[in-house]
Amino acid sequence: MKSVEILAELISSAARIGVLTGAGVSTSAGIPDFRGPEGVYSQSDIDAEKLFDINYFMYDPTLFYRALPAFYDTIRRATPGPAHRFVRQLEEREKLHLLVTQNIDGLHSKAGSSAVTEIHGGFTSFKCLRCETVHAVDESIDARIRAAQVPLCPHCGGILKPDIVFFGEHVIGFDEAAVRVQQCDLFMAIGTTLVVNPAALLPQYLGHAASFAIINRGHTPYDRMADLKIEEDIDLTVGTLQQLLGWDR
Ligand code: CNA
Questions:
Q1: Atom of ligand 1 nearest to the CA of 220
Q2: Distance from residue 153's CA to the centre of ligand 1 (Å)
Q3: In angstroms, what is the span from residue 187 Cα to ligand 1's centroid?
Q4: Over the range 33-63, which residues count as b (16 or more CB within 10 Å of their CB) and which as e?
């Protein structure tokens, strides 16, 4: 039996499925990942570690905001892909117990998933570093980002920081997610290298009786621990799963 067929059976019989997604679920939507063969880290002119470092952002936010327009425009335009729709289908069938994404592109919500833990935050709101007011993105913030300028607080003129989690900041919702992982009978990590902690620690909370499947092209540190590793294109794999399960594409 092929791995994908085994996974379809596991999904079919599971009652509480946990899903952890990473940048790989959004590459087919046109958003480059970090560590894949064509990822941001393979472009020598971008220092992503520095770009997303909170200490550097506090020291000089202009570096971040100069680099942001292209990525920001890409994620604003992007539409959900097959993996986002597949995860929504798990929720529609009342099988989804937990959805955690490391992505900051908002595509699970755009696809209609209602309960998503965006562990690294997103670009829907911005916080003033001076008065701490939280602002939803409006036209003036949007315009300054697109012009590669630092957006400023309309109340006090302080610097606005997007509610994404920079390296060196606390992630969002980890403890609650870890509890839910313990309750899952199947956990799937999709499109992630599983190297960014603490999100990458979540599989360690799985109970002994639970199954763990990874869908990712490329090595992860959990490949040996997983019951299934599907080293194929995510969209193709998801399409096969939908076919085997008799779900729409
Ligand atoms: P990563 O480390 O870049 O890993 C992505 C993995 O997906 C790699 O192993 C790729 O080979 C694999 N992959 C890419 N496309 C496919 C495909 N079509 N089929 C199969 N495998 C594929 O990304 P992680 O999510 O593991 O790392 C976490 C970082 C990445 C978080 O901090 C994110 O915020 C950050 N990130 C997010 C986005 C986004 O929001 N879309 C984009 C780039 C980076």
A1: 9
A2: 32
A3: 18
A4: bbbbeebbeeeeebeeeebbbeebbeeebee
For residue 151 and ligand 1, the question of a CB distance below 6 A is answered with no
DSSP letter (8 states) at residue 159: B
d(CA 241, CA 5): 7
Catalytic residue list: 120
Distance 140 CA to ligand 1 centre (A): 30
| Helix H or strand E segment including 71 | helix 61-77
Please indicate whether residue 36, judged by its CB atom, sits closer than 6 Å to ligand 1: yes
Residue pLDDT tens, the chain, 249 long: 899 999 999 999 999 999 999 999 999 999 998 888 877 777 766 677 788 999 999 999 999 999 999 999 999 999 999 999 999 999 999 999 999 999 999 999 999 999 999 999 999 999 999 999 999 999 999 999 999 999 999 999 999 999 999 999 999 999 999 999 999 999 999 999 999 999 999 999 999 999 999 999 999 999 999 999 999 999 999 999 999 999 988
**Which of 186, 220, 229, 228 is CA-nearest to residue 206?**
186
Q: Kindly state if the Cβ of 27 falls inside 6 Å of ligand 1.
A: yes
Does the CB atom of residue 216 touch ligand 1 within 6 A?
yes
3-state secondary structure of 242: helix
What sections of 81-127 are H helices per DSSP?
Answer: 82-92, 107-110
Which structure tokens are listed for 15? 């009652």
